[in-house]
TrEMBL record:
Full protein name: FAD-binding PCMH-type domain-containing protein
Organism (species): Linum tenue
Cofactor (UniProt): FAD
Lineage start: Eukaryota, Viridiplantae, Streptophyta, Embryophyta, Tracheophyta
PROSITE patterns the record matches: FAD_PCMH (PS51387)
One Gene Ontology molecular-function label: FAD binding
UniProt signal peptide: 1-23
Length: 416
């Protein structure tokens, strides 16, 4: 089975009644510029400004990390494009007005950087661009970057009982961010990452120019540990290990395999003081996603995602809490930091690896002033991309020399 394909497009706006008097002048200039640029202004459906009754609802609808649900930094506008030309004018006009953009697909970025910024910014929410075209004969598909993984899987399943696309488990994760950061799920050991199965893409640069097949060759774009409590006995706590797995075969083959492999899941019981730490928290979750298989055969430089041969697991650390408030938040984050430190001796070193799609701003950020040196950025860049980081900065220089597409951990320009 050849895998299907994905692609990243880009996106933009919706226009409805906007009251110019109440929007900020920057937002107004932007809207004016978009109207002037757009071939057919009536093709815009809606541009949401903060006065719009739908603004908060729309903004919050894809805030997946509730720590940011009441964030005081809000975009000047939310644009929900339904075609390329709208994206083009949004990019051109934001650049002209010196406004940052945040492109949002599913809103799952851990640090919320698809919808937050401390600079004046707009959110380009791609949810209208969610088309999936499956070509069963060719065993390929075109998917727009605003589609969610569940929409992609559904579109494939409707047309084929045997084709699949290797990507993540969570159905509301957006295709754009997921593929851009690598993207793995239950099929990773057999077929590699989502990004490994992308064979073509349309991209848009800061001038709104669309690139397709002729893109530069250098431009490339789970064990679940839960503290489940003690049932009726409220004081008792129990740690449960859930194995979320997918085996491509029949049950008479998987049982002996599990019997053989299970004891080597990487956690040796006598060494597992991690259980004690897990019991300190109310809802801690540690997910170990197995690598290996096909991942060992794909070279480190094939995509930006470098963690290939020799890596056993991709580990995801999560903690959830119910009560709102600063103290509560700090308590849980402090536990998370201790857990992260506790794991240090057991995980990859020099540098300790990180997965872009499990965003972690604590490992370092671009400087607020906009100029970050290669060595400063390498502190986090090497963790996400290892030796591919240098190459990414070179590609960045070629395709975005003004550093228009930027955020806390965007690839920086190399400053001589
Ligand atoms: C966000 O604000 C709402 C309304 O004021 C409040 O009920 C809720 O607790 C807040 N959520 C967080 C995570 O602070
Ligand atoms: C697991 O492997 C052991 C040792 O080879 C064997 O004795 C046992 O019957 C196996 N159990 C299952 C459920 O296959
Ligand atoms: C695991 O536990 C055993 C027995 O206590 C000990 O000898 C060994 O050093 C531990 N291994 C690690 C990696 O902590």
């Amino acid at each position: 089975m050849k895998s299907l394909i994905g692609f990243l497009s880009s996106l933009v706006l919706i226009a409805s009644a906007i009251s110019p008097a109440s929007s900020s002048s920057v937002a107004n200039k932007l809207i004016e510029c978009i109207a002037n640029n757009n071939i057919n202004p009536s093709s815009f459906q809606t541009i949401f400004n903060p006065e719009s009754s739908l603004f908060s609802l729309l903004l919050q609808s894809r805030v997946q990390n509730l720590r940011y649900i009441n964030s005081t930094t809000k975009p000047l506008l939310i644009l929900t494009p339904s075609d390329d030309t709208q994206i083009q004018s949004a990019l051109l006009c934001s650049r002209e007005q010196g406004i940052e953009i945040r492109a949002r697909c599913g809103g799952h970025d851990y640090a919320g950087i698809s919808y937050l910024s401390d600079k004046p910014y707009i959110v380009i929410d791609l949810f209208n661009l969610n088309e999936v075209q499956v070509d069963v004969k060719e065993e390929t598909a075109w998917v727009q970057s605003g589609a969610q993984l569940g929409e992609l899987y559904y579109a494939i399943a409707r047309q084929s009982t045997h084709l699949a696309f290797p990507a993540g488990l969570c159905p509301t994760v957006g295709v754009g961010g997921h593929f851009g950061g690598g993207g793995f799920g239950t099929l990773v050991r057999k077929y590699g990452l989502a990004a490994d199965n992308v064979i073509d893409a349309y991209l848009m640069d800061a001038r709104g120019q669309r690139f397709a097949h002729d893109v530069h060759e250098d431009l490339f774009v789970r064990i679940l540990l839960l503290n489940v409590g003690g049932g009726d006995d409220k004081k008792k706590k129990t740690v449960q290990a859930n194995f979320q797995a997918l085996f491509l075969g029949t049950k008479d083959r998987v049982i002996p395999l599990m019997n053989k492999s299970f004891p080597e899941l990487g956690l040796k019981a006598e060494n597992c003081t991690i259980w004690k730490m897990m019991l300190e928290e109310d809802v801690p979750i540690v997910i170990l996603e197995p690598l290996g298989g096909k991942m060992n055969k794909i070279p480190e430089s094939y995509t930006p995602f470098p963690h290939r041969k020799g890596h056993l697991y991709n580990i995801q650390y999560l903690v959830k809490w119910d009560k709102n408030g600063k103290e509560e938040e700090e308590r849980h984050l402090e536990w998370m930091k201790r857990l992260y430190d506790y794991m240090e001796p057991h995980v990859s070193k020099s540098p300790r690896a990180a997965y872009l799609n499990y965003r972690d701003l604590d490992i370092g950020m671009n400087s607020a002033g906009g100029k970050t040196s290669f060595s400063e950025a390498s502190v986090w860049g090497q963790r996400y991309f290892r030796d591919n980081f240098k190459r990414l900065t070179e590609v960045k220089g070629m395709f975005d020399p003004e550093n228009f597409f930027r955020n806390e951990q965007s690839i920086p320009l190399l400053h001589k």
